[in-house]
């Protein structure tokens, strides 16, 4: 159960998913929830089962005053690094909102100013505030759906199960098949290699 429901009225909550992956985009969501919104199972997406995340997704999207989701592709991650790509994804998600609100709460401790908005970084905010938790669920579920689609193109990496994270199975597939256009070339793909020849 979340410790607090809201930071203030009409706040924009934002969070990302996929920062630690070897393949696929980093995905962010931004959301404004109504003041009376509550849900007994909503929490940090990492603390929820896949079943509960996908159970919550339509509840969150249908209840939201406004929400946005943005993917930043691996080539951009390689160009600007994962932290900047994560913040860019959050900015793009915020840019999709239909709102007059100009106050953002962000999970974590790093963010860059967005337009003339004010923001507050909150460590473990996705386990404290409804809007950040909802954003974390949307970012995770939208990214998971995309990785399921990419799995169909490259089933040998089993992204349907590991979603691009550095699992033993994923790394074995990289050893066997090499890298795809969806892999992050700037990431250390294999423990014994600092850089792969591509």
From TrEMBL:
UniProt domain RNase H type-2: residue ranges: 9-198
Output the superkingdom of the source species.
Answer: Bacteria
Instruction: Describe how the cofactor binds.
Output: Manganese or magnesium. Binds 1 divalent metal ion per monomer in the absence of substrate. May bind a second metal ion after substrate binding.
Instruction: List keywords of the entry alphabetically.
Output: Cytoplasm, Endonuclease, Hydrolase, Manganese, Metal-binding, Nuclease
What compartments host this protein? Cytoplasm
The reaction(s) this protein catalyses: Endonucleolytic cleavage to 5'-phosphomonoester
Pfam families noted in UniProt: RNase_HII
One biological process GO term for this chain?
DNA replication, removal of RNA primer
Q: What NCBIfam families is this protein classified in?
A: PRK00015.1-3
Provide the function of this protein. Answer: Endonuclease that specifically degrades the RNA of RNA-DNA hybrids.
* Family stated for the protein in its record: Belongs to the RNase HII family.
- Can you name this protein? Ribonuclease HII
């Amino acid at each position: 159960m979340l410790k607090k429901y809201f930071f203030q009225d009409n706040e924009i909550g934002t969070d990302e998913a996929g920062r630690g992956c070897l393949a696929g985009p980093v995905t962010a969501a931004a959301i404004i929830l109504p003041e009376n919104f509550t849900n007994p199972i909503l929490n940090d997406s990492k603390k929820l089962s896949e079943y509960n995340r996908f159970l919550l997704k339509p509840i969150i999207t249908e209840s939201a005053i406004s929400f946005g989701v943005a993917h930043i592709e691996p080539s951009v991650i390689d160009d600007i690094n994962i932290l900047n790509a994560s913040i860019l994804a959050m900015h793009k998600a915020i840019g999709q909102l239909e709102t007059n609100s100009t106050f953002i709460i962000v999970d974590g401790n790093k963010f860059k100013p967005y337009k003339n908005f004010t923001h507050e970084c909150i460590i473990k905010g996705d386990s404290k505030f409804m809007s950040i938790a909802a954003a974390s669920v949307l970012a995770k579920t939208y990214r998971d759906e995309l990785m399921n689609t990419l799995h169909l193109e490259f089933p040998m990496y089993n992204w349907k199960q590991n979603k691009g994270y550095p699992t033993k199975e994923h790394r074995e597939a990289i050893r066997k098949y090499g890298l795809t256009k969806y892999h992050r070339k700037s990431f250390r793909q294999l423990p014994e290699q600092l850089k792969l020849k591509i």
